[in-house]
Amino acid sequence: MSVGVLAGKVALVTGAGSGIGRATCRLLARDGAKVIAADRNLKAAQETVQELGSERSAALEVDVSSAQSVQSSVAEALKKFQQAPTIVVNSAGITRDGYLLKMPERDYDDVYGVNLKGTFLVTQAYAKAMIEQKLENGTIVNLSSIVAKMNNVGQANYAASKAGVISFTEVASKEFGKFGIRVNCILPGYIDTPMVAVVPDSVKQQVVQRCPLGRMGQPEEIAEVIAFLASPQSSYVNGAAIEVTGGLK
Ligand code: NAD
User: Which residues does the UniProt record annotate as the domain Ketoreductase (predicted)?
Assistant: First the structure.
């Protein structure tokens, strides 16, 4: 994207202490935005801020699966740069893989709670703040996954939550268009972040072999597309679900 294109904007990124969220903070700051790095892991969010510098970024502790935590984060976020964020990136996410017959209810609830309900809570709370403050040109980017379409064995909870994010995104785009808020989502493929560090090497090899580009993606390769969706250069992109997978299907 272009340096300076987001000057004067404030962005809130959840899951900002790691992987795609941290790379997104880096690129949004590169493009001129002030960035609120939000994460359940405050120390990790602070490390992101340390890298970017405290003039252009601030850390915020939030558990996206808790309505109360998200609600109180809005007031905190407003204080950081005296302005409600008009760019919101829902990158917080978790996996709890397991075969269906053995999957504990808790693992289903936890994955839904962060990936789908978390996306709802953050989107609702921050869209309200934008609308109340009559801020225009809002843009919300949600992280789905290509797993929503591949429906991998052992990932029923994760696949269903990420399919939900696609539907949620489309509805939100229809409801928020009249407020000048665009909502889009990205379906990353297999990206080299701590989330996939636990995957056995044999499984990684199989996925890489299925990918036409023959490699895993880097978090910055997702963050570049997020930065585009956050910018005015994507002003007519709304309700889209964009695959960024190296061709992996
Ligand atoms: P990651 O594990 O590296 O980072 C996730 C971050 O989310 C962590 O910093 C974690 O502390 C934070 N988080 C978890 N639960 C939270 C909560 N309740 N509240 C606030 N923060 C919370 O993961 P990643 O690979 O960067 O993934 C980012 C997003 O992209 C996720 O939604 C993930 O599902 C999605 N995704 C990742 C891949 C991949 O291959 N890495 C592929 C497709 C989609």
Answer: 9-189
